[in-house]
Amino acid sequence: MARSLLLPVLAVTLAFTVPALAQTAAAPQVEAGTYAVDPGHTQVEFGVSHMGFSNFRGRFSDASGALQLDPKAPAKSTFDVTVPTISVNTPVAKLNDELKGDQWLDAKAFPQITFKATSVTPTGPNEAKVTGNFTLHGVTKPLTLNAKLHGAGVNPLNKKVTVGFDLTGSLKRSDFGVKTYVPLIGDEVDITISAAFEKQS
């Protein structure tokens, strides 16, 4: 059961251009500039079928990354996020150790997971499809995620200009060389990234 977790998915360094979202409904609040991931308020979660009985979930922490935002020139704006593979965490301690091992994510050989976006296509108010290159377990493949802008403005507590959004999508772990227990443990992995970025300059 502990093995059920597969989750290669997101230890991600996620890099993608998200400025197109900034030009939608939240445009008046969005400021151009350089942003950095707020690791304390950014979560990367994954879900995978456990023998068809449940959707087992876990997460990665200690995210880092940067957003170069230019609302007036979306094509020039880029975003990247990184999550260390070793940060994978589930409710099962034994499983956490297994996932870090060479039968699964192999955190020692592949310490990071990355996503670098190459294009953003708006699909509605505050929403877009973000396409980029996702690297996991030493393999890089194209991946498209659905992005939803939550808001942008000044954080009332720390007074920092902040942009927040969600990214959701899925991938097949076997495409990235993580095939342990397929199909007993699901091949398709759902990904949710709830990210907050704070303006640096």
From TrEMBL:
Ranges for domain Lipid/polyisoprenoid-binding YceI-like: 34-198
Protein name: Polyisoprenoid-binding protein YceI
Keywords: Signal
InterPro entries tied to this protein: Lipid/polyisoprenoid-bd_YceI, TTHA0802/YceI-like_sf
Domain of life: Bacteria
One Pfam family, short name: YceI
Position of the signal peptide: 1-22
